[in-house]
Design brief:
Blueprint: E1 16-18, H1 19-26, H2 30-39, E2 45-47, E3 50-54, H3 57-72
């Protein structure tokens, strides 16, 4: 599967996503995805030499961004 074939929505039944798939789903660059992983904001696992994003981590990350955005408006 090419990165251009990936939809912006999670695939039902798929448990793990490659970083390139997460990039597409989250509309983020590779460097942003890896920075979010390093900072602990986006969960990931390493399988051999591959970094994979659990399917459950995608909506958790989106919820985190939504919370942060709603808190920015509160002063």
């Amino acid at each position: 599967m090419k990165p251009t074939d990936i939809t912006a929505h999670p695939v039902p039944g798929k448990a793990l996503y490659k970083v390139t798939e997460a990039m597409t789903m989250l509309s983020q660059s590779r460097s942003v995805i890896y920075e979010e992983i390093r900072s602990g904001r986006l969960r990931s696992i390493t399988r051999g030499r591959s970094r994979l994003i659990p399917a459950s981590a995608i909506p958790e990350y989106v919820e985190l961004l939504e919370r942060e955005a709603s808190n920015e408006g509160v002063a």
